[in-house]
Write a structure and sequence with these properties.
single chain; Protein transport protein Sec61 subunit alpha like; 2 domains; flat; mainly alpha; 13 helices; Preprotein translocase SecY subunit; SecY/SEC61-alpha; transmembrane helix; 7 strands; about 65% helix
């Protein structure tokens, strides 16, 4: 909803350059029609500040396409029934094995830290531990508090490429935090959600399924070669895509885009499975 609004919003905003449309696409056509210098109009539409621009919109579309592309990465392990001869199957292990859970957990962690830090800073600013957790100030544009120091500042994405260049340590810390947090949460999630190699091996054994060419006792060992790696590496990829979205200036936050794409893709997969099962029932 936010992306569509930022792309096509008809709201006009008075800036130093005169009245402008908020929506990036509408602003592009408006500038091309009203400005005599078309090159300057294009430059303004692509790079205007403090309002959504075409570059932000293209970055958002690119992140969507990259995430959808990576959703198709998987390792398919063949399995067969011990009892029914000739009954073959497969167990797919996706690159995004834990789906969007790493980014959900990371987002929850950051949100809670922000809440606690702001609460403490309003009452006890000046204390060393409180300032270490985060320093805050009111934003000129949004009216909301933004972190300007402490841990809360360093786990927040840099606001622009200029901000990254001015404070490279902040950018580096944010990248390391995102990648390590997503990998750690992904590894932890498979243990608590019942999707670890041990749990999957147990489920396959209960269904009387084995992997061709492997002993039944080696099933967990074989799954251990793929599942923990897929969980950790998938978490790192999710974190990297979030960082990329933030650094490219995609509309909304990188976290929000990742959540939106993965949820939409999950609905699409569910629809495809239901469609396939219905066709199977009718013999197609």
């Amino acid at each position: 909803e936010n992306i569509i609004w930022k792309a096509f919003s008809p709201t006009t905003i008075n800036s130093g350059r005169g009245a402008e449309f908020e929506g990036a696409v509408i602003a592009l056509f408006h500038l091309l029609i009203t400005r005599t210098d078309k090159v300057r109009a294009l430059r303004e539409a692509f790079y205007r500040q403090n309002l959504p621009n075409v570059t932000n919109l293209l970055a958002t579309v690119l992140i969507f396409l990259i995430v959808i592309y990576f959703q198709g990465f998987r390792v398919v392990l063949p399995v067969r029934s011990k009892n029914a001869r000739g009954q073959q199957g497969s167990y797919p292990i996706k690159l995004f094995y834990t789906s969007n859970m790493p980014i959900i957990l990371q987002s929850a962690l950051v949100s809670n830290l922000y809440f606690i830090s702001q609460l403490l800073y309003r009452r006890y600013s000046g204390y060393f531990l409180v300032d270490l957790l985060g320093k805050w100030k009111e934003s000129e544009y949004s009216g909301h508090s933004v972190p300007v120091g402490g841990i809360a500042y360093y786990i927040t994405a840099p606001s622009s490429l200029a901000d990254m260049a001015a404070n490279p340590f902040h950018a580096l810390f944010y990248i390391v935090f995102m990648l390590s947090a997503c990998a750690l949460f992904s590894k932890t999630w498979i243990e608590v959600s019942g999707s670890s190699a041990r749990d999957v091996a147990k489920q396959l054994k209960e269904q009387q399924m084995v992997m061709p060419g492997h002993r039944e006792s080696n099933l967990q060992k074989e799954l251990n070669r793929y599942i923990p790696t897929a969980a950790a590496f998938g978490g790192i990829c999710i974190g990297a895509l979030t960082v990329l979205a933030d650094f490219m200036g995609a509309i909304g936050s990188g976290t929000g885009i990742l959540l939106a794409v993965t949820i939409i893709y999950q609905y699409f997969e569910t629809f495809e499975k239901e469609k396939a099962s219905e066709l199977g029932m009718f013999g197609f």
